[in-house]
Amino acid sequence: MKWLWAVFIVVLSQPLNAQDSGDFWVLTHPEEPFVVMDDKGVLHGLLVDEVNGILASAGIHQKILSAPWERVEREARIKSNVLAFALTRTPEREHVYHWITPLTANMYSVYSAKQLSQPIANIEQLNTFDSIAVLENDVRHQILLKQGAKNIHVYSTWSDAIEGLASGRSSAIFFSDVGMRYYCKVQGKDCNQFHRVFLYEKTISYLTLSKNGTDTKLANKLKSAAENYKKTAKFKEITEYWLKQYETLPIPMHMEDGVLNLWIK
């Protein structure tokens, strides 16, 4: 499967108004390889098919829209009836969203272009770097802000962040093992030049529904639909199809209990 498509982001020119779309929105941000936008603006990938399957199971017919990540997170946080994916579950976000179903599990780590003489023992020690690359408003950005970090270097895409690390504009990057492997591959970079210097924690990303002004009946309906859909032959079929497509990628992954684990089984 060819992943080096010309990807572009659909930026909605007018403020989102749920009333204009049947009072319900489904938003995501393309993040390869699980959510990919082709050169015709069509979304593809395992998570796209999975969310569409959950919506169909709930009897909801709504197109998934693409927007920059910062906007996806903001709309899901402040507006009603916004379904968004994939958001990492954190204590700070716990009461902001309805957590419909887990989608992926991953390991968050900090990488440096230099091998350190002393290991990083805790997140507070990340202030020893001149600058740490993150995606704007991503959960890792929020983690560093909470720590009061002053050495944050914000990028609009992970591709730019990796390039920033490789060029020396940033001295480290707060990303994930899988993300590093994937973007090194698609950008033709040697991942061996980057060293994991700190393992933060295992995290789980979810399909979420905004809480602000959203009827809990809708949340319960979607949770039930997700649980039922993950038991179907159709869900097994799409996961097997996409895992086959992803075999050529430098990413270890396996499906367990309806969640895509991004490490060796």
Give a description of the structure.
The protein is α/β, with parallel strands linked by helices and 265 residues long. It folds into 2 domains: 18-104 and 205-261, 3-Layer(aba) Sandwich (D-Maltodextrin-Binding Protein, domain 2), CATH 3.40.190.10; 106-202, Periplasmic binding protein-like II (D-Maltodextrin-Binding Protein, domain 2), CATH 3.40.190. The protein has helices at residues 46-57, 69-78, 139-146, 158-167, 177-186, 216-229, 233-245, and strands spanning 25-28, 36-37, 43-44, 64-66, 82-88, 97-112, 132-135, 152-155, 172-176, 195-210, 254-256, 259-261. Strands 1, 4, 5, 6, 7, 8, 9, 10, 11 and 12 form a 10-stranded mixed beta sheet that branches. A two-stranded antiparallel sheet has the order 2-3. Mean pLDDT is 88; it is low at 1-21. Residues 1-18 form the signal peptide.
